[in-house]
Structures are given as structure tokens and as C-alpha cells.
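Tutorial handout. Part one gives the primary structure; part two gives the three-dimensional structure as C-alpha cells.
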Amino acid sequence: MTADMLSAILVSGIVLGSGYALMASGLSLVWSTLGIFNFAHGVLMTLGAYVAWTVSNAAGLDLGLAAGAALAVAALIGAGILLERMVVRPFYGHRDILLISVMTTLAAMIFLQKGIQLLWGARLKQLAPILPGNVPLWRTTISAQEALIMVVAPLLLGALWLFLRRSRIGRGIRAVGQNPDSARLIGIDVSRLFIITFALSAVLAGLTGVLLGSVRLLTPEFGADPLVKALIIVIFGGLGSLGGTIAAAYLMGIVEAALTFYVGIYWTPSMIFLLLIVVLLFRPQGLSGKVVR
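Part two.
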């Protein structure tokens, strides 16, 4: 392997990993706080991209990408709150909430996906890049938008880490994730923090959609493949570990880039699943998850 090939694989893997890390961190946040998987997470990414396209594109409101991203974030906060209140909250305290939430969030995913198709149609769309042009990077060249993703993703994830560690609400979310009953006994408003967690997760998905919407074509199924990858990453990194999820996202991005180079895009998804199975055979708790005895 030449140095040029190695640099192309690594840079491509880091770009992929940055998008996966943003997407999977929202999914991991909901799992670690509420103990459920939100299968509508991918369609929230799609919704964010479509809202940004409508606000920014000349065929829509033509207000610019900054306004599009801002309104996408606002829309995703509302969507996250509505999802929590309508498809998850009615089942809090139910002993089978994990299974029920799989069905309700899957139903919400289908409903939203069909709604997006009705509103925006099936014709392909694409956001304008925030930064046009190309940039040279370590013996290869990538688009400026991809370089932006590489920079913005760690900044957003660092802000999320600081929020969870240093803010009162963030510490409350972590306390609820460790033991909601104990958190309630010491006066923490658990229901309010569940809403905030869902809204925060939805915003992360929407921002991922805005960032990736100019390097991929928008369709109503835009978030389906990233959702599957995010699920793999959350399990691979260790359930409930945000740090493990982020590390797994970047590792998965680099592995996927290498597999695409060596075995082609057709076999890469199968190889990733095979790799996940092998890892879980030796570490069922994931890369950084804790063994439950």
C-alpha cells in the first residue's frame, strides 16, 4: 500500500466516522438515559436536511443555509419533544417498554418517512455546501464540506461532553441514566430530563442531516443507512458509553473506508456485520461497556 492510498483511506474513514459519531451519539444518549432505542432517529436526520433545504434553496424560501440550519434545529427540537410525548411517554413504567418502544418508534419512523415523501416528493434534492471547493489534506484532496464535517463533529461532541459533565441539566441527565428512581427521590424532574434528552438527540440527528445533505443526495430514506450504522456503532462501542460510541464511530469509519477500498462497496456492509459478530463473541459488552453480573 502506498502512502497516498493510506492517506486516502484514513481521511475518508475520519470523514465517515465524524458523521457516524454525531448520529450515534444521539442514539446512545437516549439509550443511556431512557433505556430504549429510538428507531425514528434516522428519519429525524432526514427531516433536518429537508427543512434546511426548504429554507435555504432557491426553490424554497431562499433564506440561506444559516437560516436553514437554525430552523432545522428548531424544528428538530419540536419533533424530539413530540416523539417523546406521543410514542414513548405513555409507556413509562411498563415492564415491556423496551419492546413497546421498538414498535412505537418504528411506527413513527414509517409515518414520518411517508410524510416527508408526501410533502417533498421522491425527487432527489441536495443542500448547497456550506464551504464550496476542495482542500488538500495529507497527500489527498477532499471537498471543503467534508473538511468542515471533520472539524465540526468533534466540536459538537466536545460541547455535548461539557454539557453533560458541567451543566446542572447534564449532570441530571447522567443521574437519571444511572438510576431514575433514585434521581426522582432527590428531587430531579425525571420527565423533564427525558424530554430534554429526546430533543437533544433529535438536534444531533438533524445537524448530521444538514452536514451530510450537501455530500449525499436527499431522499425520504436518507437516514435509513446511517441509522443502521449508528445502531451497530452504539452496540459495538458498548451500550450506555458515550465515549465508547464516539471511539467506535471513528473506528468503524476507518474500517469501512478500508473495506470499501479492498473488497468493494457491495461486500462492505456484510463484512462490517461479520466484524461486529466476531467482536461481540469475545466482548459481548462492546469495546468499552461494563460486564453486567
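Part three, for discussion. The CA atoms of residues 79 and 279 lie 35 Å apart. DSSP finds eleven helices and two strands in the chain.
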